[in-house]
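Okay, any thoughts on this one?
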Amino acid sequence: MSEMTRILVVDDSRLVRMALVRNLKGSFDVVEEGDGEAAWQQLLLDRTIRAVVSDLQMPKLDGYGLLQRVRASSQKRLQDIPFIVVSGEETEAEREKARSLGVSDFVTKGAGSSEILARLTNLLTLAEARENIEASREEMVHDPVSGLYTRKYLGEQASQAYSQTTRSGLELCAMVLGFDGFDQLNERLGSDLAERVCTRFAKMLAGRVRQEDSLGHFGPGRFAIVAPGTSPLQLKGFAERVREAVAAAQIPIPGQQPVSLTVSVGVASLPVDTVSSAEALLALADERMGEAMAAGGNRVRLGEAAVPPLRDLKLAQALELLAAGRTELVKPHLGRLGVELLPLLALMDKELGLALPLAEAERLLRDRVSQNN
């Protein structure tokens, strides 16, 4: 029995469940639940369930609600799971509602075992073929729909960059971008259209990353960038610009209101963050993206260690902070940084004939240094 395909049967009538189990017994491993809420919890916990046979009229959570949750789930296995409705006295309008929510098929109550088995077998065969196609796509370098790197290839690129970074001592950053409220977007548009909308924004990123960076899918509604030789503050500045661009954009949807979205971004980096692998670096960026979402979304999060101690602020770091919009961290050091720049300004003044008031500038900068000390 354990080697058989597992099917979940959901109906508040014990007699109906017994009849369905009798028809399926011997061909499938059947799990039973008496209401939609219990069935939903079972689907979340048991990853071996391959199909659902459900009534529509049930307590706590009816069949429509269960179907809606399944199709709007962030888990790919639930989005695609075969879902058969056991139809009784429903009207055509009620059937159409089930179709709009993504039902796979209908069987009438009292149908014989041969009909139910045929419907399930056909749906499971189609599901297996689709899974094989998805597995083949995962072996590809580029996703055929978006043209971006697949998750697997992105991981390989990150591993190579990690090895080079640990040998050279240069910096390596990873950024994971996730669309806020992606589950709700799934529920509103359906999983395929929701993913296409997000991919359209992700393609915008493709035109803004450097040639040496790698951009790819990281999960439903999530994308990642691996950027060697980039500091976390530089990548944060880039992430902020992307966040602002997404928040300002609207995507037209035929027959619906335009879609407005926001993103949350997590950034992790070497050698600032202590991680032992490229996979751990991406996982840390993903974790920080989740923290940004939990904090309200539409924000960028990186580790506190990525911001250099103020007493050690160098000119290059000050420029990175300014690019990231963190002027409040630079202002206390304007005097010292300005003094460091004086020789360069003097050379520019001499070569370009700028007639800069360098003496007055030096006096003001040194006064600022004295005040800060």
